[in-house]
Amino acid sequence: MDPIYGDKLQAHNPAIRILTLLPGPRDAVIKCLLARVAFDKAARYDALSYAWGDPSDKTSIAVNGFQLFVPSNLSELLRMLRKPDNTTELWADAICINQKGVEEKNYQVSIMGEIFRRCDTAYIWLGFPCSSRQVDRNTDNAESPFALISHFAYDKHLYELPCFEVDATTKKVTFHHDAAFTSMWDSFVDIFQKPWWSRFWCIQESLLPSSAIVMLGPWTTPWSTIKLCEKDSLRHIWGCCGISASLMPPEYTWFVDAMVANSQVDPRHVPNHCYDACRNMDQLVRTFRYKDCQNPRDKIYGISGLLNHSRYPRLLLDYSLPIANVYTNAMEAMLCDGSGDLRCLTGTGFNSQAYNLPSWVRNFQARPHIAAINSETHRDKVYALYNASSSAKSSPILKDEIHLVLNGVWIDNVRKVGSTVVDRN
């Protein structure tokens, strides 16, 4: 029996492990207790979301009295969350799941969506700010790196930023380069360039919790504040602050991450686009193909918690399967989701030479440029305007786990085939 993990967690006996972070001073060794808890009666806990980072960059902590090496990013987050006098109950995948047990990992990953749904709060760790002035919020010159986010989240106008001046008589607005605004903007850019945003797993970890707190060093802001910033800034830019927005140089352009655009402000209200995406596996993997993960299988498994599994009963979650099998199984699940259309066969990523994939299976690991994804997403949205099949439903058949058989109507003969696309991904 493993001295830290004990018996493995299995699906026939639903359970998770809760990490109890023991109190201690800031610089002391991190000590924790790990205990198995029935998932249907789990104690209250907070879930942790962070970028694993370089696999070789690990730090030693004490769990149940034994040494365990964890990602350094996680160690930093635990240090920030540790209280001097009280324990803290947490769930962190790198610790609470025995990463060496494939069967346990299959089961725990399959319920990760529910783990993040049930948590009291999800703590999203971005790391530390780049500016040394922001590392210690207790210094006299400390400024919040979330200042620009808060500005828009509080529904303020663009011309209220320090880079604008408004003539008291004519009300004419002018832009000028300002040190205070440059500092705000640099912090803003630093936040959205942190590795956490490029991580595929962070999609469900940010969209599913009813409450989430974003941490940058000692600074925090609710996830809902970032969503309000995106929502209200666009409303101002395209509305009352259009003139002010036109005066800003192009270097001050912000393109929102798809996670923010698809998130919800109020956990009781799910916008239609998020609601639909969470039921449409094809749209979900298309939207977030630009994000990365260490294990190519996670390009499918990493969104499992967002899916309506009654729609995808053929979808398997098994880390022992070859990557080609995982991607082929995912495509089969999309084709047989009951919709009867072949939309998932459109777009890029087919005919890939990676992993020996069949020609009709998309290489989900390939990361197209975000502009290409946006273009493909737009084309997908207008797909419903066309009806070449006259609403006929497809009946896909998979033979030998490789060959896809489809029925169709003969329209004409192919007379000429163009040159091969160089970039197959």
Automatic annotation (TrEMBL):
InterPro entries: HET, HetReg/Transcr_Mod. Residues 45-205 form the Heterokaryon incompatibility domain. Pfam families: HET. This is Heterokaryon incompatibility domain-containing protein. It comes from Lophiostoma macrostomum CBS 122681. The lineage of its organism: Eukaryota, Fungi, Dikarya, Ascomycota, Pezizomycotina.
